[in-house]
Specification:
5-stranded parallel β-sheet, alpha/beta, 19% strand, 325 residues, Rossmann fold, 13 helices, 2 domains, 42% helix, 7-stranded mixed β-sheet
Length: 325
C-alpha cells in the first residue's frame, strides 16, 4: 500500500514543477518592449551592435522584444518630448547613450528602469548616487572618456615631432570635463592649448580656420553627440587643414582621422545587454553597479599618416589594436 504522505508529497512536487513550467512558458511568450532614445539619426547610430548583443542573450526583435525608437537627430532640445513619448508607450526599460538624454528620461520617470551609456562621469552629472550603488531606477556604463583625454594628447605628442601647440575640439557646455582634463594634461606635457569651442556643426569650418591661424600642430577631439555624429566632416576638415587628429572612438579613424584612443567599442554594448537582460528578469537597476571599461583600443590610419607626411613611431604603432593600411 502506498504511503499517503508520500502520495501527497509527490502530488505537491508535480504541482510545483507544472507551475514552474507554466510560469517559464509565460515569461518566454511575453514580448518585452525596450525604449531607445537615440541621440543621432537612424543612419548614424550603432543599432547593429546592440541588436547583436541582445540576440546573443536570446532576444530577437519581433519575436520576444520590440524596440520603440525615438531619434533626436542631434537636437538636444528634443530629448524631453521624446522621453515623455517613451514613458507613454509603457516600455519595460529605456536605453539612452548620452548624459543629457539620460537626464531627460530620468526627469520623465521614476519607475521605468533606465540603462545608460555615457562618456562622462554619471556621478558628477547627477545621474547616480555612486558607481557601486547607483540608487533610483537607473544604472549603466561609463566609458570614462574625459578622464583619458590626457592620454590622447600624450599619444599625439609621441606621434608628431616637435609638437608644441595643440587644438582641442569641444562642445559648448557639453564636454566641459574633457576640456578641463585636456588643459591639465597640456600643462603637464608642456603643450600650449588652443580652444576649438563649438556650439553647432556649422561652426566647425570656422573653428578649424582659427586653429590653423593659431598655429596649432595637431587636433584632439572630445566626445559628445555633436562630434560623434560629425566624425566624417571633422576628419575631412582635419585632413584639409593638415592637422593630425585623434578622437575617442575607432570609427573616427575609419572615417579618415589619424588616430583614436578610448574604450573598446563592443564592450559597453555587451555589458548593457546583460544589464537589460537582468532587468527584464526582475533585477532592480539600483542593484546593478555602474560599470567602467576593462579594455581600451588604439586605432591608427596609416593612409592618413602618409597623406599628412607622418611616420608613426614604432613605439606607438606596436601599441595599436587596429591599424588601417
Amino acid at each position: 500500500m502506498r504511503n499517503p504522505k508520500w502520495t501527497q508529497l509527490i502530488a505537491i512536487a508535480v504541482v510545483i514543477v507544472l507551475y514552474g513550467a507554466v510560469a517559464e512558458a509565460q515569461q518566454q511568450a511575453k514580448v518585452f518592449k525596450i525604449g531607445w532614445l537615440v541621440t543621432g539619426s537612424k543612419r548614424s547610430s550603432p543599432t547593429g551592435f546592440f541588436h547583436r548583443e541582445l540576440r546573443a542573450l536570446g532576444y530577437v526583435e519581433g519575436k520576444n522584444i520590440f524596440i520603440e525608437y525615438r531619434f533626436a537627430e542631434g537636437k538636444v532640445d528634443r530629448y524631453p518630448a521624446l522621453a515623455d513619448e517613451l514613458v507613454s508607450a509603457k516600455v519595460d526599460v529605456i536605453f539612452i547613450s548620452s548624459i543629457p538624454a539620460a537626464r531627460a528620461v530620468k526627469n520623465a520617470t521614476r519607475t521605468i528602469p533606465i540603462v545608460f551609456l555615457s562618456e562622462g562621469d554619471p556621478v558628477v552629472a547627477g545621474l547616480v548616487d555612486s558607481l557601486p550603488r547607483p540608487g533610483g531606477n537607473i544604472t549603466g556604463f561609463t566609458t570614462i572618456s574625459p578622464v583619458i583625454a590626457g592620454k590622447r594628447l600624450e599619444l599625439l605628442k609621441e606621434t608628431v615631432p616637435k609638437l608644441s601647440r595643440i587644438a582641442v575640439l569641444w562642445t559648448t557646455g557639453r564636454s566641459d570635463q574633457s576640456w578641463n582634463e585636456s588643459q591639465l594634461a597640456a600643462r603637464e606635457l608642456g603643450l600650449q592649448i588652443h580652444s576649438m569651442e563649438v556650439s553647432s556643426a556649422d561652426k566647425l569650418e570656422s573653428a578649424f580656420k582659427e586653429a590653423v591661424k593659431a598655429r596649432s600642430g595637431a587636433l584632439a577631439v572630445t566626445p559628445y553627440s555633436l562630434t560623434n555624429s560629425k566624425q566624417n566632416l571633422i576628419a575631412e576638415l582635419a585632413a584639409k587643414n593638415g592637422l593630425p587628429a585623434i578622437g575617442p572612438r575607432r570609427d573616427f579613424v575609419e572615417s579618415g582621422g589619424l588616430m583614436s584612443y578610448g574604450a573598446d567599442r563592443d564592450e559597453p554594448y555587451r555589458r548593457l545587454a546583460v544589464f537589460i537582460d537582468k532587468i527584464l528578469k526582475g533585477t532592480h537597476p539600483s542593484e546593478i553597479p555602474v560599470e567602467q571599461p576593462m579594455k581600451f583600443e588604439l586605432a591608427i590610419n596609416l593612409k592618413t599618416a602618409k597623406a599628412l607626411g607622418l611616420t608613426i613611431p614604432p613605439i606607438v604603432l606596436m601599441r595599436a589594436t587596429r591599424v588601417i593600411k
